[in-house]
Amino acid sequence: MEVQVKKGKGNTLRLLLLSVLVPALNIAIHWLIFLFFRDSGLPPVLNALIAVVWGALGIYSIYYTLNWVVEQYPDQWKRRILPFVFIGPAVLLLGWLLVLPTLRTLYLSFLDAGSQNFVGLSNYAAVFTDRLLATALRNNLLWVFVGTVLCVSIGLLIAILADRSSFEKVAKAIIFMPMAISFVAAGVIWKFIYYYQPEQQQIGLLNAIVVAMGGEPQAWISMIQPWNNLFLIAILVWMQTGFAMVIFSAAIKSIPEDMLEAARMDGAGEVRIFFSIMIPYISGTLLSVTTTIIVFTLKIFDVVMIMTGGQYDTEVVATQFYRQLFMYQNAGYGSTLAIVLLIAVIPVIMINLRQFRREGGF
Amino acid sequence: MRKKGPRRSKWLINTVLAVICIIWFVPTLGLLVSSFRPAADILQTGWWKIIPHRDWAAVDTITLDRETDLRQPITVNGVTFSDAQLREGVVQDGNRLVWENRRARTISVQEKQWVMMTNFTLQNYQTVLGGKSYQITMPDGGTKTEQGSGMSQSFWNTLAVTVPATVIPIFIASFAAYAFAWLRFPGRKLFFIIIIALLVVPLQVALIPILRDYTSLGLNGTYFGIWLAHSAFGLPLITYFMYNSISQLPKDLFESAFMDGATNFTIFSRLILPLSVPALASISIFQFLWVWNDYLVSLIFLGSQPNVQVMSMKIANLVGSRGNDWHLLTAAAFISMLMPLAVFFALQRYFVRGLLGGSVKG
């Protein structure tokens, strides 16, 4: 009996030691690898290879060792601790890099440019009064409205056309392809299309078409403000319509055939079928695609940065955020703009949560 | 089988869809074609001139007396022209006369012919990929020395960022998703609701505080820092997606495995992961493309270190500094698109499934 107690005590001590040592060793080892890696200055190919191996193996070894520690515990403890080992890294990462920063940004948005003094709501007032910030807000609304309407309507149109065409697969792949490439690359593609050479042969496709039809070539993305924003939005439409189309296409195919058949029997035309059967049937999909594109468009950054850098009155909230932060060193305005974006997505968060609860939650 | 409409409407649908597809495809085609054309050609003629078309082509050269006074009417083959006419090009008997070299007094005689511009080169790719200097020919016939852009190094950098930034969050999220789906622990519901709420939180909201933490930890401009950032930003969507997939697995599977004495860790790595391969493939493609195409996160966390620049930053810099060097921009953009396009065409099925399974992340 006594021996057993002693052994139990020794065990507890050993467990405690392990529970502290193993996580600490994990952190230490990976921090050392990180330091070595940062200061070694290896050639890029080798660097990439080591990074890949370390990134992949490192994460597995962390879980493996932590799990091993938990396995040393008595059964009932094991059952309690293990879930926290499994969700631990996710919770830590999200807490450190997403949840806490959001709260800290909220706090910073009430401070001045250098994050020294409390300024109340004056940063928020500036969003509506400062010319730069107000332009960014106006343009962002234009992006969200025009971009979303065009993506959703063209996506729906193409989904319906493709469903009845003889080359559905090819058509869908072509429309969908731009989604795979980066906004930076897409920016180069479209900058080339909008390119304007004064007094010379036009090598930009759009100007060449305009000249061929007898018009005057234009500097599309800099001259005709505020319509130049629409030429930038066209890039978003080119890239995101494929997303809307793929999801609509799946939704349309799930409409029961006899429902459409019955409507046709009753003499309903295609337009009538579209509005009284298809639209109500896919309304849930319509809503989720619309909110997804709205959320996406709210944060638009790369396109504007590449095409104009925010010049010629094309600034949006995310580019202005970057400018305030890095060029004007104004963390107050920067944080406020980020919080404005957050406020704009709160309704979507609500919709998602309600949806989750309706689907049964847990 | 969907009932097909009358033949005439089918023809109409096919035509409309084909036109839309051409509009969608031409921008990318223009980029691809231009990236193979010599610098001089790109600036002089539109890329569509590679399609056979009727144009003036030189068939003969007339050499005038070197002393010809250009201010007087110029007599060519018994007809007189002015200098301005010859500069513009003047048509006579179906032939066009235009100065070939005004100073040397040679006139080119041109005839309408079917022509294609089939002058292709790999020089642009060499220049963009390499780090050395290159000689290129300019439109005016002169040569220019050009510094290579070192794209191949940023290609490796992009890979070193992207692969771990895909593997790490998928590991972490899958472990968490398994715990949420099959283990019982206090706070489970709360944590999951937070994750759903984080799905659409704009990442701008987290950038300023993370940047401050990274600066004090020395993580700025390191692979490790950007892996963590990308992992955290991707986690909510990946966890949600993997939860949906893992929670659908049949319950008996776990019960029989537990009966055999398997631990949660072995069940997860031997049973759950292999069974979730399709879901893992879908979400990996998403995260991979997202990180590969990302510009904002790299700009903020890698911006201070030129030697770890990823491709999107490199191209953005090229657009800023060499905005009219289309031979470089097109080649660089196409190199950055290679990987996404390969992934897209090879794994389109998983890509679409990933889209249908989750929304697009914040």
Please provide a written account of the structure.
With 362 residues, chain A is an all-alpha fold. Helices cover 77% and strands 0% of the residues of chain A. In chain A, helix 3 packs across helix 15, helix 4 crosses helix 15 and helix 5 packs across helix 14. Chain A is globular, with a radius of gyration of 28 Å. The two termini of chain A are 45 Å apart. The N terminus of chain A is likely disordered. Chain B is an alpha+beta fold. Chain B is built from 15 helices and 8 strands. A 4-stranded antiparallel sheet of chain B has the order 1-6-5-4. In chain B, strands 2-3 form a two-stranded antiparallel sheet. Chain B has a two-stranded antiparallel ribbon with strand order 7-8. The two termini of chain B are 38 Å apart. At the A-B interface, helix 1, helix 2, helix 3, helix 5 and helix 6 of A face helix 1, helix 2, helix 5, helix 6 and helix 7 of B.
Number of helices of chain B: 15
Helical content of chain B stands at 55-70%
Termini separation of chain B: 38 Å
Low-confidence stretches of chain A: 1-6
* Chain-averaged pLDDT of chain B: 81
Oligomer category? heterodimer
Radius of gyration of chain B: 30 Å
Q: Layout of helices and strands, plus pairs?
A:
The complex is a heterodimer of chains A (362) and B (362).
Chain A: H1 2-40, H2 44-71, H3 75-108, H4 122-129, H5 131-164, H6 168-176, H7 183-193, H8 205-212, H9 228-253, H10 257-265, H11 270-281, H12 283-298, H13 302-307, H14 317-326, H15 331-358
Helix pairs in contact in A: 1-2, 2-3, 3-15, 4-5, 4-15, 5-6, 5-9, 5-12, 5-14, 9-12, 14-15
Chain B: H1 7-35, H2 39-44, E1 53-63, E2 74-76, E3 79-81, H3 83-88, E4 90-92, E5 95-101, E6 106-115, H4 123-129, E7 133-137, E8 143-147, H5 151-182, H6 188-198, H7 204-217, H8 223-246, H9 251-259, H10 264-275, H11 277-293, H12 296-302, H13 311-321, H14 326-346, H15 348-357
Antiparallel strand pairs in B: 1-6, 2-3, 4-5, 5-6, 7-8
Helix pairs in contact in B: 1-14, 4-14, 5-8, 5-11, 6-8, 8-11, 8-12, 11-15, 13-14
